[in-house]
Design a protein that fits this description.
The complex is a heterodimer of chains A (370) and B (128). With 370 residues, chain A is α+β, with helices and mostly antiparallel strands. Helices cover 19% and strands 32% of the residues of chain A. Classes of the chains: A alpha+beta (370), B alpha+beta (128).
Chain lengths: 370, 128
């Protein structure tokens, strides 16, 4: 039985095409993936992200607890700030990638992947013993939307009340605001490579929030956007998606997320394995690549081959799509470290035939400075 | 939104259409299919001269999100393929029964046409 978010009816009314994603019934698109993708790059798109999980972590030991469970350094977070972080197992494999926000000195909010809610909560709970920490899985009680795109800032302020305006937030900051007298959190974060905001609100008011944000955004060319566009947008800027770039057998070092691993902060779960990988080099690395014009787009699980007379199978595509911004096939994949230099040519096997692709620097798509 | 289903064509359950002129059948995908796929970004067509059996996978159409096989609705030798649609796959979206055609085959077994769906049958299949 697939789960539905509190916005399910709203999606159906908007003509959303509902598909399965991580155990949830979610809109893959309303008008078209390309249309919604372009709206986010040029104006704004509004996404339902209520399927994602929320966990509250409170107590005198909360900061130390999270600093031991997560790879990034939580001591850098002032109240009202968030950071991207990874939760690893002892082997350095990824249990989940997440956002952690510091709502108070002893109070944190984790935003976790929909498909990992149960695994994450079980892992966190098992690690609390002997610590002054209260964990609360509020995933079902909370809904969330993402308002993404260069014009989101033009209309977000009018949707909320409170001590500050969303537009006053800097990247990765979070504010506690009000919506019809109810408490909501608004953060300047996202998963599209564009400026934007993410709103976490009680499930019972999220449809009102969604409706008001879409109405306010209408004059600014905002439109609802589905998971299809969310995937093409994040692939263009090389943000990982759990189950594709990350899993329990893949470390953040292998995924190219070493920036979010603070090896110098003291001991934490997975530190030894990650330090070893960083010192000696991982066995595989996540690359970004582009296909030439007129090639079929790459897809997850397509084989990656080296070029030349001794060509061998060296890895696998983990994310691949046609890039709506660039008009060519793009992808991410894992190969051994000796192949990863940008500019190198690899081959992608598509329906039994191999097509050349070029390894490029991440991100694949970068906004032009106009 | 209802899809166009021209009355003079035959249809396969797998959403291909067939237009017959003499012993040549032109094949494409239906308006309903292009709408379901949305944003078609790549089309792969068979070699001219390939002999197809009804039901063979004979072409591939890719949207932003997925790759889908296209099946030969009738048996026969491929006599022509629509090169413009390879250069501009969006033709399948904009004109599925015209400029967005895929391939032509010389009919090998004319009675196969009787097994295909009429426009009315296809409309009921897609719930129209």
């Amino acid at each position: 039985m697939l789960k539905r978010t509190p916005l399910y009816e709203a999606h159906v009314r908007l003509g959303g095409r509902m598909v399965e994603f991580g155990g949830w019934e979610m809109p893959v698109q309303y008008s078209s993936i390309v249309d919604e993708h372009n709206a986010v790059r040029r104006a704004a798109g509004v996404f339902d992200i209520s399927h994602m999980g929320e966990v509250r972590v409170r107590g005198a030991g909360a900061a130390d607890f999270l600093n031991f469970l997560l790879t990034n350094d939580i001591r850098k977070l002032a109240v009202g700030q968030g950071q991207y972080s990874i939760m690893c197992n002892e082997q350095g494999g990824t249990i989940d990638d997440l956002y952690v926000y510091r709502l108070g000195q002893q109070e944190f909010l984790l935003i976790i992947n929909a498909s990992r809610i149960d695994a994450d909560f079980a892992w966190l709970r098992q690690k609390t013993s002997g610590r002054d920490v209260k964990l609360e899985n509020v995933s079902d009680a909370m809904g969330a939307i993402a308002v993404q795109g260069p014009r989101a800032v033009e209309f977000i302020d009018g949707c909320f009340g409170g001590p500050t305006k969303p537009s006053a937030l800097k990247k990765n900051q979070i504010a506690t605001l009000t919506f019809d007298g109810k408490t909501v959190h608004v953060a300047r974060t996202g998963y599209t490579g564009e400026d934007g905001f993410e709103v976490v609100a009680p499930a019972e008011i999220i449809e009102k929030v969604w409706t008001r944000v879409l109405a306010a955004g209408h004059r600014h060319c905002a439109q609802p956007a589905g998971l299809g566009a969310r995937d093409t947008l994040r692939t263009e800027v090389c943000y990982p998606l759990y189950g594709h770039e990350l899993d329990e057998n893949t470390s953040p070092i292998e995924a190219g997320l070493g920036f979010f691993v603070a090896l110098d902060k003291g001991d934490f779960v997975g530190r030894k394995a990650l330090a070893d990988q960083k010192a000696n080099g991982p066995k595989k690395k996540c690359i970004a690549f582009k296909m030439p014009d007129k090639s079929a787009p790459p897809r997850p699980h397509y084989a990656i081959w080296s070029t030349g007379p001794k060509s061998t199978r060296i890895g696998e595509v983990v994310s691949g799509t046609q890039s709506p911004s660039l008009g060519i096939g793009i992808g991410l994949g894992y190969v051994p470290p000796e192949y990863v230099a940008p500019g190198n040519t690899i081959e992608i096997e598509i329906r039994g035939k191999r097509s050349p692709a070029q390894i490029v620097k991440k991100p694949i798509y970068q906004k032009q400075n106009v | 939104m209802s899809s166009k289903v021209p009355a003079d064509l035959k249809y396969a359950k797998s959403h291909e259409w067939v237009r017959v002129a003499g012993d040549v059948a032109t094949v494409g995908i239906t308006d309903h299919a292009q709408h379901e796929l949305t944003d078609i970004v790549f089309v792969e067509l068979p070699e001219v001269g390939r002999k197809l059996k009804a039901g063979d996978s004979c072409a591939v159409v890719e949207s932003v999100k997925t790759a889908s096989d296209i099946y030969a609705p009738v048996s026969g030798e491929v006599t022509a393929v629509n090169k413009p649609v390879v250069d501009d796959p969006a033709l399948v979206n904009s004109d599925p029964y015209g400029k967005g055609w895929f391939l032509q085959v010389k009919l090998a077994q004319r009675d196969e046409l009787n097994k295909l769906l009429s426009a009315a049958d296809y409309m009921s299949q897609i719930g129209q």
